[in-house]
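It is worth pausing here to work through a concrete case rather than discussing structure prediction in the abstract. The textbook approach is simple: state the sequence, then state the predicted structure, then interpret. We follow exactly that order.
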Amino acid sequence: MAAPSIVATGLTKRFGSFTALDHLNLKIEGSKCVGFLGPNGAGKTTALKLMTDMIFPTEGQALLSGISVRTDRKAALSNCGVLIETPEIYPSLTPREALGMVADLRGVSPGARQGRIAEVLGEVKMTEWIDQRVGRFSKGMKQRINIAAALVHDPQILLLDEPSTGLDPRGMAEVRSIIRGLKKSNRLIFMSSHILSEVTEICDEVALLDHGKLLFHDTLANVESRFSKGQTSVDIGFARPVSDADLTAPLRAIDLITSWDRVDPTHITLHFKGEPGAVERLFDQVAPLHLGIVSFHEAGNALEDVYMSQIARGD
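Step two, the predicted structure:
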């Protein structure tokens, strides 16, 4: 079987004078997890709906494993699991009954149906609730059943639209754990999100969308390297307030450091040239300054810096 792929060519959607998606060109191949990142209203859900023929494009086309969703919708989606927005499950049904309906619609043979339902409920960690009424479930539990429904026909491609949005912290952690587990199943997972930590934690690649336009698509490591231009940062905490005068001269003497920012009287952020081994060498040069350092760690989320700089550039 050929490797799964998602291709968008000039994919555009206009609603009157408003352009929700503007000539999206994107090619993703192979088993991996790709984060489709962007702020609310960037066009992520519109793109996913176009990729699944839920709405029709103004221009361009989308192909799933080489098959156009417009010219042969059934064939294109036969090997694709989809969770877009927040579908509802009949509250009077059990997971066994609800997934049985989906399996029937998806063409899973009657002989394989119960085994497949048990398998996907195991993947989403809902086995013990297989015969409980869905109406009694928490929002996070319902979302896990929704993910199971997308998996019941064992697709190679999985399209997820902000799967953890609206859940409490525990529910979000559970959904992320499930998606990490799904990465081991040789699937192509394309997951929209506006949560940076989620993408960093789960995904192998990231595509950033803003105002309907694709800003970039690359591996996380390449994105951070390309846009940070070799720069990275560390946060440093001191046991007591340290003045700018006490810091300026000794920090200027360290060649690795390009600049530094004051966070508060006892914290600063150092920006430095981020070649391999630089953090360790920087620590070796900063520690002997006898400034009362009590903490030293890499600053924030590198993807967050890239995200904010690119989104701000598009405003």
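Step three, interpretation. The longest strand covers residues 18-29. Residues 238 and 292 are 5 Å apart (CA to CA).
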